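Course assignment 3, question 2. Fill in each field.
Student: A.L.
Task: Predict the tertiary structure for the chain below.
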Amino acid sequence: MQAITAPSTTPIPGKYWQWRGHNVYYVRAGDKQAQRLPLLLVHGFGASTDHWRKNITGLCQDFEVFAIDLLGFGRSAKPKLQYSADLWRDQLHDFISEVIGQKAVLAGNSLGGYACLCVAAQHPESAAGLVLLNSAGPFSESQPTSEPEALQSEIEADIQPATLQKLLGDGTKWIFQQPLAQFLLFQYVRQGWVIRQTLEKVYLDKSAITDQLVEEISRPAYDPGAMEVFVSVFSTPQGEKVDVLLKQLACPLLMLWGEADPWMNARERSQKFRQYYPQLREHFLTAGHCPHDEIPDRVNQLLGDWVLSIIK
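Answer field:
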């Protein structure tokens, strides 16, 4: 693959696709190429297509690249629904079928990685390859923290005095399920300074946390329906276990791990993925929870080279 130029920080304008009566926002860049698979990039919890801007501009010289806002996030509609991996799996599968028009390589970060895994495992006709970047999702033998749960734990730790935590114990979960508490919690977490504080915990390179990044994450949280999405994601039952999905997976798998991620132990989690899918390829990177945004040049190169290798 040719050397990739420095990624732009200017988001590429997108368009809307109608899915089940709702507006879904997506971005397309690069030309369709007969001998190269298209890429579909899927963001994590609270993020959007904007989070991939450095990757879209870096990869579109060599590939046709799509990025999509999952329903409930970014510029996509935020209807009152039960938000789950199954919903996003169906959205991504239908998008590949109706808009991309051929098998794609799916690349997802965290919650988006879990949704991509669900597509690749349960709709193999949609996926030519799968790239997971610090992917979320539960395994059967244990319950590793998924992204929304990790975020909730961080929030609870930030806003509760230690003595209150000791007094309430497990009761804190019950409190955060009450409508008033949910409302107050959402007002808290969507503030720019709180978003910046959270990013500073999960990014290794603090210089990547720009005002632009904070604004891109904050802005959709003020859309109508955003609070209901937030509550639904936290209260939805867990989806299919990762090990079950890996047993169904038939396409090539690349895993990119930001090793400084405080929400997951990358080396431990890697062993679990390798146990159920030993033929995977992986790289451990000097980055946090969002390596694609922290070290985009490195991620673009690894992702692009791997995609070219699986179609030779």
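Instructor remarks: Strands lie at 15-19, 22-29, 39-42, 65-68, 104-109, 127-133, 253-258, 281-285. The longest strand covers residues 22-29.
Grade: pending
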